[in-house]
Amino acid sequence: MAASQGSARAPGQPTASRGSVPRATNPFRSRRFWITLLILLAANLFITNVLLAPAQPTTITLPYNVFKDQVTADNVVTVTTTGDAITGVTKTAVAEPGTGTKATHFTTQHPSFANDNLETLLEQHGVTINAKPENPPLPFWEQLLLSFGPTLLIVGGLVYLLRRSAAAGAGGLLGSFGQSRARLYDAERPATTFADVAGIDEVKQELEELVDFLKEPQKYEKLGGRVPKGVLLIGPPGTGKTLLARAVAGEAKVPFFSQSASEFVEAIVGVGAARVRDLFEKARKAAPAIIFIDELDAIGRSRSSGLRLGSNDEQEQTLNQILTEMDGFEAGAGVIVLSATNRAEILDPALTRPGRFDRRVTLQPPDRRGRAAILKLHSAGVPLGPDVDLNEVAGRTPGLVGADLRNLVNEAALGAARKGESVVTSTDFYEAIDRILLGTERHLMLSQTDRERIAYHESGHALLGLLLPGADPVRKVTIIPHGGSLGVTVQSPIDDRFNYGEVYLRARIIGALGGRAAEQLVYEDVSTGASNDLQQVTMIAREMVVRWGMSAKIGPLAFAEDGQSNGLSMVRPYSEATAREVDLEIKRIADECFAEAVRLLTENRNRLDALARALLAEDSLGEDQILSVTGLHRVPTAAEEVGAATGTGLT
Fold first, then answer.
1. How does 144-179 read in b/e, with b if 16+ C-beta sit within 10 Å?
2. Residue 92 and residue 120: Cα distance in Å, rounded?
3. CA angle, residues 396, 402, 403, in degrees to nearest 5
4. Are residues 457 and 431 in the same domain?
5. What is the pLDDT of residues 58-100, one digit of tens each?
6. How many helices and strands, by DSSP H and E, does the chain display?
7. CB 402 within 8 A of CB 199
8. What is the dihedral of CA 306, 309, 313, 318, to 10 degrees?
9. What is the mean pLDDT of residues 104-109?
10. First to last CA, the chain
11. Domain assignment of residue 145, yes or no
12. ∠477-636-481 over CA atoms, to 5°?
């Protein structure tokens, strides 16, 4: 089972601090600045377009033939041409056809096809002729403005930003870009304490020493002790790493600066390093304090892994600055760095060495007792029915972490509310477990042929789970589609498992191949329904060969590719000949397990048929019904009662 971790109740929204660390004011975020700018723009438009705009006389548009008639009648005084456009002035007002508007100023258009010697006509009637170029040159002041205006504007903006940055202490030309975006949580009103954390008591004990040092540093200093400069929390997503960091801050009652590692990096090279400097400077001023950097792998990736286009990129500069700041603490600075990651294997070695992150705290998956404590914490405000046993619910949820258990309680409460219940019952919890692990029930219109094939497929899984020694007990089998599966067989491990024997792993493979074996036996044909089963078979068989040394031909050697790199490409730690042997051994294990599955189902064909018929009639069968239909008997042990549902089925 993959390593996972318990956590506790999600904290409430943190309260922003008004402590001693000032935040520089960005002038561009000021409402007063934008209101003033809008007023100035509106005033500029009004002055230039209304007050200073010259008065324009009324101008009408005349057809070209009407214009010529006015020239012939000696009513036109002057004309001005710009290309084919003609404007002019008449002695007496002329009415515009169609509108009746009269004016002495007019405009018309000379047709491109006209060849009427207009110039001679105008000269004969004493009309003054003016001409303007179509593209006149701009005035000198406009040319000067367009040439130097943008440059002057950019220079002026940079000077303004430089002065504002210097006044705000934001680090020179970078201005507000170089300021840290860390949230400062109020130490006087902590949102989270260790009372909000459950299921990971051993981790809390490790961090209590850290809290004690922040509260009473003199107790350790007088004996020559030195607080760790950094503590790295390692665990998969949803395990409570961030919650633990907040709990440390709440218990120590010191300023707590929280920031995600991805917030350091920007497109502008150097901004991340400037933000790191600003963050550590604020923390030193507020010392004793805690800096929490979430998802450290976003900037802490090893500098020797993968091909880099340059050694001076933004991510590397940011990492170098963090290394410098952490190693440059003066004695007694009182600043501790907490970081969280779920990919500790890719972090740069310089970051995890003693003197920077001195202590590595790995969050382990909660055991049954830890899960019960987490469920109790999350269900504190939920009215539970008298039949709810949180210890039993915890026994059905191995592998679930704190975030999963919080979601489980929430789903159970939502299900009870949907049914109009006043309390949350054990049935609501079990339905929530099925919804989380198996997916939401789907209503598909399946043909009788498909239902029968699915019934035999799931019966093959279930029957082998009962027949194989060492297999996980079968708790439920259903042919009702859930999530991406058309049917599901639920098996429960006897207890939380942390070590797996070869017999158990082979039983897992045989059980996963039970559906395909049943189809082969009954229909002499196989379907696409075993795709997820085959993925599990391949994964387990490969790990047995390359990681766990469970192949006689390969021997007790580990050939797992765990991301080893030579700086440019992934390195495979074995030869082509060994790779071929690995492939043959994986296939051998799968073939042997499939043959065993077919053999067991053939010997128990009557039980397989009976179980399939019962599934077609009932859709779902519980553990007692399965045992009754197959005629098999098993004496349950106390450990078997604390298993948790994990499903495999058709996809």
1. eeeeeeeeeeeeeeeeebeebbeebebbeebbbbbb
2. 23
3. 105
4. no
5. 888 888 888 888 888 888 889 888 888 888 899 888 888 888 8
6. 22, 15
7. yes
8. 0
9. 88
10. 22
11. no
12. 10
Query: How do residues 155-183 score in pLDDT, each as one tens digit?
Result: 777 777 667 655 554 444 444 555 555 56
User: Is-catalytic flag, 618?
Assistant: no
DSSP result, 289-345: EEEEEESTHHHHB-TTSS--S-TT-HHHHHHHHHHHHHHTPPTT--EEEEEEES-GG
Question: Other CB atoms closer than 10 Å to residue 119's CB: what's the count?
Answer: 11
- The whole-angstrom separation of Cα 619 and Cα 142 is 84
Distance CA 162, CA 166 (A): 6
CATH of the domain at 80: 3.30.720.210
List CB contacts of 304: < 8 A, sequence separation 6 or more: 348, 565, 567
Task: Write the CATH number for 503.
Answer: 1.20.58.760
Rounded CA separation 629/625 (Å): 6
Angle 529-535-537 (CA atoms, 0-180°, nearest 5)? Answer: 105
User: Quick check: helix, strand or coil at residue 481?
Assistant: coil
Q: What domain range is 83 assigned to?
A: 59-131
Q: Which of 334, 362, 390 is at the close of a domain?
A: 362
Report the relative pairing of strands 128-131 and 76-82 from DSSP bridges.
Answer: parallel
614 falls within a domain: yes
Q: Which residue, 513, 505, 514, 509, is CA-closest to 549?
A: 505
- Quick check: is 357 in a domain? yes
Q: How far apart are CA 618 and CA 480, in angstroms?
A: 10
**Residue-wise pLDDT tens digits, 256-273:** 888 888 777 765 566 777
Structure tokens at 8: 């506790």
Q: Collect all residues with Cβ–Cβ distance below 8 Å to 563 and sequence separation of at least 6.
A: 345, 346, 570
| DSSP per residue, 26-88 | PGGG-HHHHHHHHHHHHHHHHIIIIISSPP---EEE--HHHHHHHHHTT-EEEEEEETTEEEE
Q: Are 431 and 419 in contact (CB under 8 A)?
A: no
Q: Which of 263, 295, 452, 458 is catalytic?
A: 458
